[in-house]
Amino acid sequence: MYAINVNIIKQHLQKVSPITIAVGNFVMIIIPAFIILIYDGFFSSEVLKSPDIKMALFYIVLLSIFGTSLAKVLFNKLVQISTPVFASSVTYLMPVIAVIWGLMDGEGFSIWQGLATLIILLGVYLANIKK
Fold this sequence. Notes:
It is built from 7 helices and no strands. It is an all-alpha fold and about 130 residues long. It is flat, with a radius of gyration of 19 Å.
């Protein structure tokens, strides 16, 4: 689906603002998201009366604005000004950023995880090597 997304943006949405594309993405997922929240019991009085709900929602909003929305707008702009292949190569950097954020947050990173990362990167290299 990622490749389809990149190619649709490049072929059919070249003249549409990156912000408009991002808004369209989020508008399409808001109804299913609310259905999941209702089904999961998020709007129950027990959850809404929780003392931690305000802080949790603050962090969700913060992450959605800076971690998702801003990144989506920048990615849409990158697709429009470059090739789909180059723009999709950005996904190789996402795990690196995720590991750095995890380490900054105090999460552990074992030798096995490092070895698995190297194996994945080797696979990506071998898949992209010119024959």
